[in-house]
Design a protein that fits this description.
The complex is a heterodimer. By secondary structure, chain A is mostly beta strands. Chain A is 0% helix and 54% strand. In chain A, the strands form 2 sheets. In chain A, strands 2, 4, 5, 9, 10 and 11 form a 6-stranded mixed sheet that branches. In chain A, β4 and β5 form a beta hairpin. In chain B, the strands form 2 sheets. In chain B, strands 2, 4, 5, 6, 9, 10 and 11 form a 7-stranded mixed sheet that branches. A 4-stranded antiparallel sheet of chain B has the order 1-3-8-7, with no helix packed on it. The chains are: A mainly beta, B mainly beta.
C-alpha cells in the first residue's frame, strides 16, 4: 500500500521553513527520504528506523512516529537548492521492499 | 561514489516493438532494481534482482521481463511495447537489501508511439 504524502506541492521563499509528511496505513519498520531535482536521479537523504529516532544533517531533518505510522521531513531556512520533488519510501519489515509515495513538489523562490 | 548508468536518456519506439533498457552499476552491489516513475504515482517497483539470474516481481511486473546475466548489468525488457508503457524508467542498485539505500541512475524516458 502506497504511503500518502502531504502536501502535494508547496512554494516557499528563501529562508522559510517547510514540513513534508508521509503516512502509512501499515506498521512501519523504516522510512527513507529522497530528493529528485528536475531532470536528475533521486538522491538519498536519510533513513529512519523503527524506534522513533530523529535524524538530520545541515538544515534538513526528519522524525519517525511509529505509533502514528508517520514520518515528517523538516526543511528549515530553505535555500534555492532545496527545490525538487521529495519522495518517502516505507518498508514494513527488515529486508522488505520499499514502497514510495507519490512525491511532494517543493519550489523555493528568491 | 556508486555510479549507475543507463544506456539511453531518451528512447522512442513503436507499439509492438521489443524494447531493451540497459543498466550498469560499478560498485559490485548485490541488488538491482527497475522502477517506473509517473506523475502523481511516484516510483513503482517493476522488478528486483538480488543476485545473478535471480529476480523477484515488484508491484507492476505485467508486460515486463528482466535479465541479469552479470552482476553489474540488469536489463529491462518490454516484449511488445504498448502506449501505456510510455514513462520514465529508473534503475537503482543497493548493497545489502531491497530496503537499503538506493543509488539511482539518471533514468530513461521512453515514449511508445
Amino acid at each position: 500500500q502506497q504511503p500518502v504524502q502531504s502536501p502535494q506541492a508547496v512554494i516557499l521563499r528563501e529562508g522559510e521553513d517547510a514540513v513534508i509528511n508521509c503516512s502509512s496505513s501499515k506498521a512501519l519498520y523504516s522510512v527513507h527520504w529522497y530528493r529528485q531535482k528536475h531532470g536528475e536521479a533521486p538522491v538519498f537523504l536519510m533513513i529512519l528506523l523503527k524506534g522513533g529516532e530523529q535524524k538530520g544533517h545541515d538544515k534538513i531533518s526528519a522524525s519517525f512516529n511509529e505509533k502514528k505510522q508517520q514520518s515528517s521531513l523538516y526543511l528549515t531556512a530553505s535555500q534555492l537548492s532545496y527545490s525538487g520533488t521529495y519522495f518517502c519510501g516505507t518498508s514494513s519489515g527488515y529486508g522488505n521492499k520499499l514502497v514510495f509515495g507519490a512525491g511532494t513538489i517543493l519550489r523555493v523562490k528568491s | 561514489d556508486v555510479k549507475v548508468t543507463q544506456s539511453s536518456r531518451y528512447l522512442v519506439k513503436r507499439t509492438g516493438e521489443k524494447v531493451f533498457l540497459e543498466c550498469v552499476q560499478d560498485m559490485d552491489h548485490e541488488n538491482m532494481f527497475w522502477y517506473r516513475q509517473d506523475p502523481g504515482l511516484g516510483l513503482r517497483l517493476i522488478y528486483f534482482s538480488y543476485d545473478v539470474k535471480m529476480k523477484e516481481k515488484g508491484d507492476i511486473p505485467e508486460g515486463y521481463s528482466v535479465s541479469r546475466e552479470k552482476k553489474e548489468r540488469f536489463s529491462l525488457i518490454l516484449e511488445s511495447a504498448s502506449t501505456n508503457q510510455t514513462s520514465m524508467y529508473l534503475c537503482a542498485s543497493s548493497l545489502y537489501s531491497k530496503a537499503d539505500l538506493l543509488n539511482f541512475g539518471p533514468g530513461t524516458r521512453l515514449t511508445v508511439l
